[in-house]
Every structure is written in C-alpha cells, then in structure tokens.
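Technical note accompanying the year-one report. For the benefit of new consortium partners, we illustrate the data format agreed upon in the data management plan: each record pairs a sequence with a structure-token string. No post-processing was applied to the example shown here.
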Amino acid sequence: MIDLRSDTLTLPSHEMLETILTAPLGDSGRLDGDARGGDPTVSRLEDISCEITGKERAILLPSGTMGNTVSLLTHCAPGDNVLIDTMQHLYRTEKVCFDARFGQLNPVFYHLTGDGYPNVADVERALEEHDIKLMCIENTHNGAGGTFIPLDALRAIRKLADKFNVPIHMDGARLFNASVASGLEVKEICHYADSIMFCISKGLGAPIGSMLCGTHDFIVKAAATRKLMGGAMRQAGVIAACGIYALQHQISDLAEDHRRAKECLELLRGMKHISVPKSIQSNIIILDIEKSGKTSSEVVEEIKKLGVWLSVSGDNHARIVFCRNNTDEQISQAAAIIRGYDASL
C-alpha cells in the first residue's frame, strides 16, 4: 500500500529515537514563577523554537489542535469575533474554539485569492465591518493545496492588523514547508504574526508535539491556558528530544517531499475525470473529482483497493500528501494507479 494520506504519518528514524535515551528529563508540568517547566530537554526545544521563529518565548503542546486552541483562547474571551478564512483548518476540522459548548468564539470570514492566500481587500473589508479581536492566517494552507503566503501579502495583512489594533495568530502547522517553498527564512515569515503554532510531528518527522511561540507575556498566559486544557505534561523531554533532532537535521528534507509531489503532479496531468491543479507549491496535491460522478469518499475507497491510500479533502476533492516515508519509486507507481482508475470510470 502506498500511503499518501498525510505527512502526519511520518515515522521517527532510529537516530531520532536514540536521542530519547540520553535526554535529561524533569517534570515539564511543574512551572516556576516565569512559567518555565522543570524538564531541561523541553526547555531546550522551547529555546531553539524561539531562535528559529524570532519570538521571545515558546511552549510545547501535545498537538497542533491544542496549540491553536490554546492560542485563540488566550488571545480571546467567549463571544469575541475571530477573523478566519472560509477554508481554514482550525475552523473546518478543529472546531473547538467556535463550539458553543467550549470556546464560544464567533467566526467572521474572509476569502482567499485564486492562488490560495488571503485576499487583502477582503480582510480589510471584514476589519472595517466587524469588531475583530483576533485575525488568523494559515501558512502553508492545507485546504488550498499547500500554498504559502507571499511576503507582500504578509506585509499588507500586518499593516491592516496594526491599523485596527488586532493581533495575528498564524496556524503554521506546515510553517517549514512554507519557508522551503517560498525561500523565506522562518524568522521572516513569523515576524508578521504575534503568535505562531508549528508542528514537529508532520513533515519534520517527530512522533508527537507542536510548538506555540509568541511574546513573553503571551506565552506565560498561554501556559496557564494549556494547564486548564490538560496539556501540561510530565517527562515530556522524551517528546522534545525528537523535536530537537527534527529541527536540527530534517528541515531541508522537506524539499524532497515538495519535489516528489511536483513530479507526481506532472504524471497525473491530462486525466479525463479527475483534474489536478495547474501548479503546486509544496507537498500537497488536491484532486478535483467532481467529473467522476462519485463522492470523494467513494473515490478514495476505490483507489485504496488498487493500492494507493488518499484522503478526503471535501465533497469534490481528494488529497495527496508526500512525506519522508515516501520513495521516488512510489511517485510513478501511485500516478499509474490513479491514472488507471481514472481511465476505468
């Protein structure tokens, strides 16, 4: 089975797992007066994350969902309006911040451009028409097909946020994919956001964890929010050791994921019933299956039976994601199976 469902399926290498054996450990959940935990390996990962992003402080969380949730619930209070795009992952999939039982935040929407990044004019309209407490952006953007936000758009969004005195949270689950794809330094991308969440457990290849970065005062408050949500961990250095290895050794490997995805895209062009995008920027390909006459769930299940496992990405879309688990040989194999399926429709 060629598994192309997600880069969350990355497996840690033997070398990564070995770092756990020598990592100094402590109680990460017991915080000092400055909201620093007692696990030295976690503290080191947090410091490395600050160096990379250019932010003052960082905290480790079990998942990207918790990272985004902790951020939004630290920035906002129940009933606040949060500006998000119509396809944003933290609304479509994570949901908890906008659930009436939990976060009780109100979504206000802006649209993306045809190229998959925020429409600055639409962002400005929303800021003018609503009392917005927080703006959220996603970089790279999952639902838009792994697109990154260009530097001029980041600057324009930051300028609007400053004009309306609204902080920006960046869902940077695939932040390092955005950096590799755009050629921008991670620190430069993060300069335009007040808080950033990034995953160490997607393409970077660590088994568990995400980082939330921001100002000192924000992270101190976020640490309290994390504890309320059950996110304070004990000897979390076993997680952090893998994250440190990923950040020190595996960022550049993301370029290979992007290359494989782009080669696969070229092999998939010209199908009759399944359409592919004109271009992609990172490791994600969104297949448009509307002409197949089937639901995306049906298409995914039928292609799975042929040996390629994709994921559902909407009513009329299926998703291919390349990660470090995939090989060059799988590119042509997967493309041939998908093309054969298309020809059979």
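Partners are asked to follow this layout when depositing records. The mean pLDDT is 97.
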